[in-house]
């Protein structure tokens, strides 16, 4: 027998794994990262840098660069996200107007920019200028009449179809991951799941280009959700330039959390709302350091967008409003009613959209994504054109619905009957009876509302970039504006009623319909996404309406309560479950009285657990075990008889270690003994060199006893981000619980299909 002392000559060969080899510590696609391990690796890296920094000036400078790399990444993300958002906004404005006409003086100008530069524009006809021509004027020299209307109608549909076809083709050919909102996948990625290519360079490029095309096509979708995906792609790109982030999946996710905040910051011009959105809605692990960096990234992104000034109003906010009337306590009742409407709309939308998406997945419909996009675009364009409220871009519609009716407003919504004897200042116009324009606008808004509700259900989830924030806000804003006009007219005609008597005297400006639109928008967005704090902050940053926080809070909370009464899932969680991603939601409660032994594998009647022994298996035995099973890792025990637990070895690292050993270490053959102990086992004199794999062994795997309540196990998986947990009794291995097992058990307990959880 040969003991360890006689093998010193080859010790350096056997211990070659004490040096790291390529790809160790990386993860396969569609697998979950090990948060504890990533945290431990980062701590080791930091400790090494700190100790080296005392050795020389150069090492000290390197340690400073490492410390500052996080802030540099945030700066770069903010600059790129802000620039892309500004370019997208400008391109969308131009291409949306291109469906209706073209600027003769400079074809790259949108309608608004074209008439800004004109010297022949009057204030009353500020949308009409000789430089801007509709397609009918350009092609047949007619601006009015049936033939001009039909030609404009036809070209509107053709442009919309052209934009949508180009977008879906680009997504299908170059970047399949560029479709959808991206937020469900980003939530899953931030929880530790790996989806390779989802945040890649091609996805970034195609999503940016196709986002402009689909929003310009007039489909019922927004660009705000996809902008979060675009910002996270920027974050992933800049992370790959710094080894601190590129080699540690846990650290990379801190950067992506901050990038999501920058995305919302540029989507809405709401930097603080962006940080809160990342914290409340998308992030899984959000330490204080990430909060500061998110704040910085959101600030830089907002500043970059403000410098580009895409809205041309020198403001960062999308829908700036100035209301001249405070709100009154009696108005809380209609605000709460709007909250109820928002909750009901959210529930209806989620159920119908998920049913449609499930149908798309399980029937032949899913095989024709291009045809589906073309059909929905054609239906949208045909129905949208005759109604002025659906023809324009959704952002413009929301802006008009939020606006207060001043003396200079030319909108139909402001067609009130004025008192000829009125001598009040411009800003303080009293409530007036509605004119014919307001009544026709109410009919058009009602039709537009029904159309938006129905078409958005079928649009969200198609194979094109599609956000949900703006369509949801449009639904709420239309409902809110109609309620606002109703309350305003009620107050005008019945100002002697007890509810109006105290605060609405004749000739006073009591009710602001635009405020109701704002509250309705918040309620509907809250009903769909179940956001609360970040939603209110985004809304007041979006509009500048700081004194209307209480109505917004009342509507947001009511919509969440009502929607939660019908189901706890928001739209993003529902899509995560639909796609079978292994997402363990922090908000879910587990109250069932089951134990670890009920969930662990192997169960009674199943084959015993596949394990490695510490020093009695050959390379061939290990390779056979890997080939015959598809497990992500194997517990290491003292021997098959004792089953005393030593540690845990990952499948990927075993494969890489054996492959590297065969290439780099002489004497390693199929019947070489594999050992995980510090010292090699005693071997026969002519036996081949053993292979030491202690370096890849996790000596402190997380373990629970078989009588641990599942409530505790679920909490451990959530808070520590575990991939798997071993079940023991008195140090003896009994089984294993993976994240997938936990999710399937939770689904089973909730009477759902456990097989819907597809990934590890």
From TrEMBL:
PROSITE patterns: CBS. It is found in: Endosome membrane; Membrane. Signal peptide: none annotated. Gene3D superfamilies: 3.10.580.20, 3.90.1280.20, Clc chloride channel. The keyword NADP does not apply. InterPro entries: CBS_dom, CBS_dom_sf, Cl-channel_core, Cl_channel-4, ClC. SUPFAM superfamilies: CBS-domain pair (SSF54631), Clc chloride channel (SSF81340). The keyword Cell division does not apply. It is a multi-pass membrane protein. CDD domains: CBS_pair_voltage-gated_CLC_euk_bac (cd04591), ClC_3_like (cd03684). GO terms for molecular function: antiporter activity; ATP binding; voltage-gated chloride channel activity. The chain crosses the membrane at residues 68-92, 153-175, 195-215, 227-243, 255-279, 332-356, 368-385, 441-461, 468-487, 515-540. Keywords: Antiport, ATP-binding, CBS domain, Chloride, Endosome, Ion transport, Membrane, Nucleotide-binding, Repeat, Transmembrane, Transmembrane helix, Transport. Residues 600-664, 697-755 form the CBS domain. It holds the Pfam family CBS. GO terms for cellular component: early endosome; endosome membrane; Golgi apparatus; plasma membrane; synaptic vesicle. Belongs to the chloride channel (TC 2.A.49) family. PANTHER family: CHLORIDE CHANNEL PROTEIN (PTHR45711), H(+)_CL(-) EXCHANGE TRANSPORTER 4 (PTHR45711:SF2). This is Chloride channel protein. It comes from Irena cyanogastra (Philippine fairy-bluebird).
């Amino acid at each position: 027998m040969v003991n360890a002392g006689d093998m010193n000559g080859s010790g350096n060969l056997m211990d070659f794994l004490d040096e790291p080899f390529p790809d160790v510590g990386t993860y396969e696609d569609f697998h979950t990262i090990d948060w504890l391990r990533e945290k431990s690796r980062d701590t080791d890296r930091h400790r090494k840098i700190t100790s080296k920094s005392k050795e020389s000036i150069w090492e000290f400078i390197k340690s400073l660069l490492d410390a500052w790399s996080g802030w540099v990444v945030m700066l770069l993300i903010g600059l790129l996200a802000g620039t892309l958002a500004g370019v997208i906004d400008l391109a969308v404005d131009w291409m949306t107007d291109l469906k209706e006409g073209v600027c003769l003086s400079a074809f790259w100008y949108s309608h608004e920019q074209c008439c800004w530069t004109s010297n022949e524009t009057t204030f009353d006809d500020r949308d009409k200028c000789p430089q801007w021509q509709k397609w009918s004027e350009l092609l047949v020299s007619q601006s009015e009449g049936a033939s001009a209307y039909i030609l404009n109608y036809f070209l509107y549909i053709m442009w919309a179809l052209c934009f949508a076809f180009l977008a879906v083709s680009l997504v299908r050919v170059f970047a399949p991951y560029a479709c959808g909102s991206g937020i469900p996948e980003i939530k899953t990625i931030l929880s530790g799941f790996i989806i390779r290519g989802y945040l890649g360079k091609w996805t970034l490029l195609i999503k940016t280009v196709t986002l402009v095309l689909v929003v310009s096509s007039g489909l019922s979708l927004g660009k705000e959700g996809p902008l979060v995906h675009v910002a996270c792609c920027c974050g992933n790109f800049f992370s790959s330039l710094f080894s601190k982030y590129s080699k540690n999946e846990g650290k990379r996710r801190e950067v992506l959390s901050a990038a999501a905040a920058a995305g919302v910051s540029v989507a809405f011009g709401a930097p603080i709302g962006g940080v809160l959105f990342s914290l409340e809605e998308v992030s899984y692990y959000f330490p204080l350091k990430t909060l500061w960096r998110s704040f910085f990234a959101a600030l830089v992104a907002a500043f970059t967008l403000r410098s580009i000034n895409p809205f041309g109003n020198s403001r960062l906010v999308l829908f700036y409003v100035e209301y001249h009337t405070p709100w009154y306590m009696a108005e809380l009742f209609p605000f709460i009613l709007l909250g109820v409407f928002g909750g009901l709309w959210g529930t209806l939308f989620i159920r119908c959209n998920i049913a449609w998406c499930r149908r798309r997945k399980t029937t032949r419909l899913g095989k024709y994504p291009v045809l589906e996009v073309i059909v929905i675009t054609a239906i949208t364009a045909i129905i949208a054109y005759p109604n002025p409220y659906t023809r324009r871009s959704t952002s413009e519609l929301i802006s008009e619905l939020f606006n207060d009716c001043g003396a200079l407003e030319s909108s139909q919504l402001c067609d009130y009957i004025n008192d000829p004897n009125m001598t009040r200042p411009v800003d303080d116009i009293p409530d007036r009876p509605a004119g014919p324009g307001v009544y026709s606008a109410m009919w058009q808004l009602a039709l537009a509302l029904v159309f938006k509700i129905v078409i958005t259900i079928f649009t969200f989830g198609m194979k094109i970039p599609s956000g949900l924030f703006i369509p949801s806000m449009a639904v709420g804003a239309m409902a809110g504006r109609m309620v606002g006009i109703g309350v305003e007219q009620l107050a005008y005609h019945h100002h002697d009623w007890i509810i109006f008597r105290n605060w609405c005297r004749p000739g006073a400006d009591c009710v602001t319909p635009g405020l109701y639109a704002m509250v309705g928008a918040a309620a509907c967005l809250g009903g769909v996404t179940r956001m609360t704090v970040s939603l209110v902050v985004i809304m007041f940053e979006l509009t500048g309406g700081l004194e209307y926080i209480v109505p917004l809070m009342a509507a947001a909370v009511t919509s969440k309560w009502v929607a939660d009464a019908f189901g706890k899932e928001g739209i993003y969680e529902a899509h995560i479950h639909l796609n079978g991603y292994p997402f363990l939601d922090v908000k879910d409660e587990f109250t069932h009285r089951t134990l670890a032994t009920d969930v662990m594998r192997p169960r009674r009647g199943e084959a015993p657990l596949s394990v490695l022994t510490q020093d009695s298996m050959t390379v061939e035995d290990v390779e056979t075990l890997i080939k015959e099973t598809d497990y992500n890792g194997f517990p290491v025990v003292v021997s098959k008889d004792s089953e005393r637990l030593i540690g845990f070895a990952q499948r990927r690292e075993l494969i890489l270690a054996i492959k590297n050993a065969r290439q780099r270490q002489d004497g390693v053959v199929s019947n070489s003994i594999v050992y995980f102990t510090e010292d090699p086992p005693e071997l026969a004199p002519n036996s081949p060199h053993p292979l030491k794999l202690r370096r890849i062994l996790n000596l402190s795997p997380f373990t629970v006893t078989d009588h641990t309540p599942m409530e505790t196990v679920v909490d451990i998986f959530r808070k520590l981000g575990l991939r798997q947990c071993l079940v023991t009794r008195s140090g003896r291995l009994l089984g294993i619980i993976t994240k997938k097992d936990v999710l399937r058990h939770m689904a089973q307990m909730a009477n759902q299909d456990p097989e819907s959880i597809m990934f590890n």
